[in-house]
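Q: Give me the 3D complex with glutamic acid.
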Amino acid sequence: MKLSKRSNSIKPSPTLAIDARAKALKAQGVDIVNFGVGEPDFDTPENIKEAAKRAIESGFTKYTPVGGTDELKEAIIEKFKKDNALSYAKDEVVVSCGAKHSLYNIAQALFEAGDEVLIPAPYWVSYPDQVLLNDAVPVIIKTEEENSFKITPELLKANISGKTKALILNSPSNPTGCAYDRASLEAIAGTAVKNDFYIISDEIYEKLIYDGFSHISIASLGDEIKQRTITVNGLSKSHAMTGWRIGFAAGPKNIISAMTNIQSQSTSNPASISQKAALEALKGSQDFVPKMVSEFDKRRLYMIERLNNMKGVSCLRPVGAFYAFPNVSSCYGRRFNDKMISSSFDLSSYLLEEANIAVVPGGAFGDDKYIRLSYATSMENIQKGLDRIEAALSALK
Ligand code: PMP
Ligand code: GLU
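A: Here is the predicted complex, encoded as structure tokens.
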């Protein structure tokens, strides 16, 4: 029996696949340093875990409303007001099983055959595949390191057609760690309003910012852009809650209602217990967040400096997220024994096999000149891993 064309058009998430491989090698006793997956190494804060325990003990273990409980939606509305200067009503908010699920529901609700969806590259791995899964066409727009990997109004305009349905914007960005300032967002918003397409704004890394950067939600720039924007966020990164699977989206009522219907026919509500945990994450003490960010900041500065001191490697200083995205293309064309390194995939395999380091090839994010290293791991691991990368790169002839 044949599988659907749709399922054949996509691949497994490369970031999750590399993480699985690194974890399997570790389980076999290999001393792997895992710079692969983007997941905080911090444990979920105790007050959040306690809230989940209370949910279980009090029997809060049944179906909830499909799009999330009223109390959680109210806390999300409060968050948008406080952090993002955005005001939403309850029917403009939906809670899903992770931000990835919110993004997928948006793709289901908006896209159909023939639609074009603009995706600046380097992009997060799931965007093009979610577009393909919904029969639309990803239009990849390559951005340049010299411009901090930001899309310019000129680049954007050159890729707009009568079929353009949406732009997927991710600031701060996975994998580059770059982020958009107000002026760049205003230019993009103006173009979206003029050409009447949607913005899907993935702001999952908004709390992980450095060097005094301030995060701005594009939807907050005016009514016209707000009507065309669906803002996605979640607790996986900000509160070290990747396994709890809580994400959310806010936007125009008709889109949120379609997403909720889709959810009602696919997953139903996100886990009741996770929703109570999410409520505590949003309303309880926030002391944990700046502590985690300050730890990431130390690791960021150390990793970027070490990478830039390696021969043949250069790395922009990211202002957000927890990734370094060094340009390693000057290693291409060099050899280890009889093996030629010609791409980010070759280099990543070489680092895994010869140096026991897991990284993600830039090719998986749409730019082969780079590799992605997550610094969401201990300083000790970072030091050890970078020593190994340095030795492995200098062994190339
Ligand atoms: N967007 C980006 C850019 C991400 O890096 C991630 C991390 N997996 C997600 C969305 C999804 O996060 P989650 O589903 O865990 O909320
Ligand atoms: N966002 C994380 C990453 O890019 C998690 C993996 C995934 O969801 O694909 O590593």
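A quick observation: The chain has two domains: 5-43+288-394, 46-283.
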